[in-house]
Amino acid sequence: MNVIEKLERLRIAYNRLIRIGGWIVGIGFLLFMADVLGLINEVGVINGAGWIGILIVVGGLAVLGVAFFRYYFPFLQIYKGELIQSILAENLEGYDDLRYFPEDGISKDTIESTGMMWMGNTYSSGDLIEGSYKGVEFRQSDVCIEEVTYYNKSEHRETYLRGRWMIFDFNKRFRSDLQVCEKDFRYARAYGGPFSKGEKMHTLETESVAFNRAFTIAAENDSEAFYILTPHFMEKLLEVKAKISGDLLFCFVDSQLHVAINDEYNNFEPNMAVPVDADRIRRSVWEDLEPITELINILRLDDRLFLTN
To answer: What does each C-alpha distance from 213 to 45, 182, 242 come to in angstroms?
Structure first.
């Protein structure tokens, strides 16, 4: 049995149990509510039918648990550990030495050290991919940053970032930090990282009305900021904004470019609703890599002219 056949059998079994478990939970809930609302007995009193409904709900939840632990998690392990790995091992044009670590991600310390993102109190990351495209080294992973608080036994969850964080080698050397933040990106901060000169960051504007309308700029040093933000490069950042979905944050730190895309999207995730098809999944993987290729191509990060002067 090949990988595709294994995955399809697991997918079918998972969906079957999900449907069965869902029906069981629904029947139990209806029986419980009928009892509580007085359709079976006295209003507001849980009698035998209500307790039976609760037991049916518990049984349905147990079936759902079996669906996840026996079928979904093994599916995910094979899907990411074998199928996605094999696709990334193919000779993808322009890419070299792609390495994929489903359980790993860019660390919280790495993002926090830029000084350019509010970090909340809950952090998770995964689906780390590393390698190079057109000779430009990069790292990317899914990242979720949230602030979780509790009040009167209720939970409040504020999401700061749910999307991807990417790190590229930049093709200019600089000493002062720079942040370019799309207006709708709400949880950026501009304090600078540990490799900066320690100057206080301040906002500035460019001569481009369109760029000022789209982005907020925070810099430590105006001269170095405009060394990076040439008119041509600003046009390219606007082009990136037009092509990539989600709110964008660009952080120029320690001669690297950090890019956050807040789009509430998880990369390399399976679609359990449709049959497993290798060609469709291959196209999906290429689509998940597109923001990497688009950033490097549009911003011309492979142009090393400034590094040789």
So the answer is: 60, 9, 14
Q: How many CA atoms lie within 13 Å of 205's alpha carbon, on the beta-carbon side?
A: 7
Strand, helix or coil for residue 1 = coil
CA–CA dist 293, 285 (Å, integer)? 13
pTM above 0.90, yes or no: no
Residue 263 per-residue DSSP state: S
- Which residue shows structure tokens 């549009």? 298
Between CA 258 and CA 239 the distance in angstroms is: 17
- Give the range among 206-215, 247-256, 264-273, 296-305 with minimum mean pLDDT: 296-305
Beta strands in 134-267 (DSSP E): 136-151, 154-169, 178-182, 202-204, 215-219, 247-253, 256-262
Structure tokens, 220: 């430590």
pLDDT digits (tens, 9 = 90+) for 104-121: 999 999 999 998 999 999
Q: Of 266, 259, 268, 262, whose CA–CA distance to 301 is shortest?
A: 259
pLDDT 10s digits, 43-93? 444 566 777 888 888 999 999 999 999 999 999 999 999 999 999 888 777
DSSP H or E segment with residue 125: strand 122-133
**Is the CB of residue 262 less than 8 Å from the CB of residue 100?**
no
Which token pair is 84?
Answer: 């996605």
- Spell out the residues 6+ positions from residue 177 whose beta carbon is closer than 8 angstroms to its own: 114, 115, 116, 192, 193, 195, 196, 201, 219, 220, 251, 252, 253
Q: Are 140 and 265 in contact (CB under 8 A)?
A: no
Q: What's the rounded Cα separation, in Å, for the pair 11 and 19? A: 12
Q: What distance, in Å, lies between the first and last C-alpha atoms of the chain? A: 56
